[in-house]
Amino acid sequence: MRPTRPVPPTRRNVRAWPRASGAALLCLPLVVGLGGCGQPTSPAPSTPTTVDVPIQPTIAPVGPDALETAPPDPSVAAGDSLYDASAALTGATCTAKGGSWSFSGLLTNANQTPETYTVGISLLRAADLSPVFTTEVVVTVPAGASSPVEAQAFHRAPAKGLTCLTGVTVKEQ
Fold it and tell me: Which of 27, 63, 83, 122 could anchor a disulfide with 134, C-beta 3.0 to 4.6 Å?
């Protein structure tokens, strides 16, 4: 391909340039004027746009001395809730033997109908209560009866620095 040479000015292209630029200058106010049409205008706010929120209390950070207590009882649920069925679980034990964690307990159904219980078992780091492992065991207990609940060797981890918590819920029929 040949390089193109610049076109020397001639009478023809010298006269065309002022016409093209003049046309562009005449069209510019028209474009700017029409461009502003239909643009929404924002009304001035009648009230301040900031919101006042009262300061909320926060939970104080847990110090290293606060964790020097005995681990919580695994048969006690962490809160009061409509679905809390922790009273149905008795004799709960969660232990680590040989680096393997196991859980066992007894579920008692005091109701007149069979109930399906879900036992949630969580291993937490004792230092900061962050979760390490969680599993669930579902057991259906006949009306007025008891059934064992077990999770043998549900997780492999050393016992040092871990604690086990459980929670029990009843599945809605």
Answer: 122
